[in-house]
């Protein structure tokens, strides 16, 4: 296999545009629901989220929780609550656990803003919330879950483009039906690598082979090593060995490491290898 150096390529111009679009949407809402990937409780978050939001209240959702170890997840939720000062909930696409809690908490967090507007002589209105997060953390699935029981669109608000519609969740809460995409930064290759593992980085930004090998190396550390070895039925966790064990050979007789890399990433992303959290709670507490 060609020993490519792992490097995730970024596009600063796209990042600036995404930040500008996100800030425009943020000005329209009272509360933000930030979605992160439960496999990356820190790395799928935005380092400057507090600066981006200002004093706007935030809920934190760890999505795709069905793909992680529940005991570890509980520890992460406790840690993130303590560090961020936010309410933290877990969610996944398969059930509606915490749905009413999330809705009620959003209304509660928006109340000071609503009261402030009423003190200025405005009539009470529903709280307005939007869902934000990095690419592919599950923002759309969260929106779909919140709007499942209510498809009533209330139309464009003042200062909102026609493409941005609001959905009435209940009489007290409206949701912007398009997610806010938090752009990933270009200054942390370790974070970029982890985001590539969970498909939160465009596949055009990296080669699968070095990313898949980096994933194997990451999973080989700590308590996950034996789980991965058991899944691939080998204690030599590299692309060549796994390709040979599956008889994936190209015409030259060499192991087909490209095919192997793609399958390893797919196996991980679908939770077939095991339930893993790839951030370290001891070194990445926030």
Describe how the helices and strands are arranged.
Elements (H helix, E strand, L loop, with lengths): L11 H15 L4 E7 L11 H5 L4 E6 L6 H15 L2 E4 L8 H21 L7 E7 L5 H9 L5 E3 L10 E5 L2 E4 L3 E2 L7 H9 L10 H12 L5 H8 L6 H7 L11 H13 L17
Parallel strand pairs: 1-2, 1-4, 2-3, 4-7, 4-8
Antiparallel strand pairs: 5-6, 6-7
Commentary on this structure:
The protein is α/β, with parallel strands linked by helices and 286 residues long. The protein is built from ten helices and eight strands. It has helices spanning 12-26, 49-53, 70-84, 99-119, 139-147, 189-197, 208-219, 225-232, 239-245, 257-269; strands at 31-37, 58-63, 87-90, 127-133, 153-155, 166-170, 173-176, 180-181. Strands 1, 2, 3, 4, 5, 6, 7 and 8 form an eight-stranded mixed β-sheet that branches. Helix 9 (239-245) crosses helix 10.
